[in-house]
Structure formats: structure tokens, C-alpha cells
Write a structure and sequence with these properties.
By secondary structure, this protein is an alpha/beta fold. It has a single domain, classed as Alpha/Beta hydrolase fold, catalytic domain (Rossmann fold), CATH 3.40.50. It has eleven helices and eight strands. The chain has an eight-stranded mixed sheet with strand order 1-2-4-3-5-6-7-8, with helices on both faces. Helix 2 packs across helix 3 and helix 5 runs antiparallel to helix 6. The longest helix has 15 residues. The chain starts with a strand and ends with a helix. The relative contact order is 0.17. The model has no long low-confidence stretch (mean pLDDT 95).
Amino acid sequence: MINHFPVDGGSIAYDLTGDGPLVVCIPGMADVRASYRFLVPALVEAGYRVAVTDLRGHGDSDTTFVHYDDEANASDIEALIVHLGGPAVIIGNSMGAAIGTLVAAHRPELVSGLALLGPFVRNGKLNPVMKLAMKVATAPSFVAATWAAYYPTLNKGTHPADFTEYSAAIIAAIRHPGYAPTVSKTMQSSHHTAAAQLPNVHTNVLVIMGELDPDFPSPEGEATWIAEQLGGTVLMIADAAHYPQSQRPDLVGPAIIAFVAGAV
């Protein structure tokens, strides 16, 4: 059953399963909460209460908000953790990592640990021509087609067992009336606020990066840099790219469960 949590400007969709200490999972941009479909059952079986959200303007969340950036989504997660009774271990994939980082910096009492998967916590380096090309490619008229073309490259290596069906589902979600503009705004937002807050994060941190992640010139280099900034540890996942939680749940699941056990 889908839950909807009201925040200023609309409501956020989330699933809540299990009993025990709270774990909150945040997907990345253009993705939906089912990104954690293989990880949630393992966490619940291990004795945790798991909330998995959709970002603003994604999945089953509303498209009525003004802002769709990291800060806005972080405010939603902060409110949700308070509502559910924190603290929580936050698991964030891609943009979800930036969101979790901001929550940990702003409200440290709400966060007992951060597991960052394929994390974006700072902007990539693009020249002006590439920036313009990206702005055009992620405009509302093109964002679904752009994501349909790019998403397979983010799953290089081992594909999830349901890759074809899941890929079709997330593209259909973007094409649902009213969602392309909000996904476009999300994609065109910046991670500069998360980068600025890295020195203010003081919690347990695990960085998990797929060795084949095409979003970074050096996935291991980016993972190491993030871990150094946050005082965390790195786990590189072979034969996986930007979604290690769904590409290699056999490796990521046990690592996350061990990390959560040490953080709560």
C-alpha cells in the first residue's frame, strides 16, 4: 500500500515495511522507489523498518511543488524521518546520496548512518558546450527519450533480472502526464549545496560504487574522494554500474545489512 506524506507544496509517496530501527531509502533522479526492490526484503528480514520514497515530481509523488532540487528533497526526508520516529540510517542512490548528505548535515540527530550508492555529492565537470547539450537533452520534450537512451549505459555489467520490465516502467513514469517537466527540473538542478555541506557531516558512512559506473571518469577515484571527505569506507562492486543495489544485490545486500547493524 502506497503512503502519502504531506509536506509544504504537495505530498511525497513512500512505502513502509517491517519493524525495528528505521532505514530510509532514497532513489536518484528519474528513478522511482522500486529501485530498492531487491534490497528492502533483505533489510526487513534482518529486522529493520524500511521506508522507501519517491522524489518530488517522480513516481507517485505530487508534481505540485515549486522546487525539485537537493535542498527541497532533503527537507521532505527530514520531515518524513521525524514523522516516522527517527533516527534513521539513510541509503541514497545517485542524487539520493546528495539528499541524504544534506539531511545528515542539517539534522545530525536524525541520521545514524549514510550508505551512499553511486553517489553524486558534487557536480561533474562539463564544458559550456556539454552543459548546453545536457540542458537541451533534459528539456521536458526530450527528457523521456534521453533517459530511455542513457539508462541502459547506467546498468553496464550485470543487468537486474527484471531489467526490461523495470526500464519500461521508469520511462512510462516520466511520460505520465505532468511528470516530464518535474523530472526535467530535477535533472537540471545542481549539487553545489551538498558539496558545500560535506564538512558538516559527522556520521557513519559507507560509499558503494559500481566499477563500471559511466557517470564518473574514475568511479573508484570518486568513491575514494567522497569517503575521504566524510571519513567513511569504500566498497567497489564488480560488474555493476550506477545501480549496484539492483545489479548486484548479492554483494550489496549483505554489505548494507552489516553497515546498518553497526550504525544503529
